[in-house]
Amino acid sequence: MRLLLILLALVFSATGMSSTAEASAQSRRIVTDSRSGYAIYGYDPVAYFTEHSAVLGLREHEYVWNGVSWIFSTRANKAVFMQNPDVYAPQYGGHGALAMARGYASDSNPNVWAIYRNRLFLFYSYTARAAWAEAVDLHVERADGEWPAIEGTLSR
């Protein structure tokens, strides 16, 4: 049995299937558009900080980070992201911040967001964002604590 598993692992890595599975696992950790495959539904993560607005990216400014395609509204935003992706990427892979604080992953709406302490948070709804805002520090602390375990379940 062990020999069979070793042979299968060699076959999968030789055919690139393991890297495909790895990319697929990573894409579950980061919220993506189911049709385009773009991170955070094709919105420019840098624009939240620079434009204070949710701005759609352009395919001509695409960058692959953590196995997922991110698109940007400008070449400059792409360059900024490439230098510090962890600064500009949304927290919890773009999953809803309130849901994360409550111990589960949810989709998010890229038009419902907040920047708090130089971190980008996305939310499922305006109601979720309002609830999160009632106890921001508590929710951030809880979500930060929940994310490592939840991220692990999304990567399988």
Word description of this protein:
The chain has 2 domains: 30-87, no CATH class; 90-156, no CATH class. The model is unreliable at 1-27 (pLDDT under 50). It is of the alpha+beta class and 156 residues long. The protein starts with a helix and ends with a helix. The protein has 8 helices and 4 strands.
SSE map:
Blueprint: H1 2-15, H2 17-29, H3 45-50, E1 58-65, E2 68-72, H4 75-83, H5 85-88, H6 97-101, E3 109-116, E4 119-123, H7 126-133, H8 136-154
Antiparallel strand pairs: 1-2, 3-4
Compact overview of the structure:
This protein has 156 residues and is α+β, with helices and mostly antiparallel strands.
Low-pLDDT stretches = 1-27
How much of the sequence is in beta strands? 15-25%
Number of strands: 4
Query: Which descriptor suits the 3D outline?
Result: globular
H-E string: HHHEEHHHEEHH
Residue share in helix: 40-55%
| Largest sheet entry | 2 strands, antiparallel
Helix vs. strand class: alpha+beta
Number of helices, where a helix is a run of at least 4 consecutive DSSP H or I residues? 8
Task: Give the number of domains.
Answer: 2
Spatial gap, N to C terminus: 22 Å
Mean pLDDT: 85
Query: How big is the Rg?
Result: 17 Å
Q: How are strands sequenced across the largest beta sheet?
A: 1-2
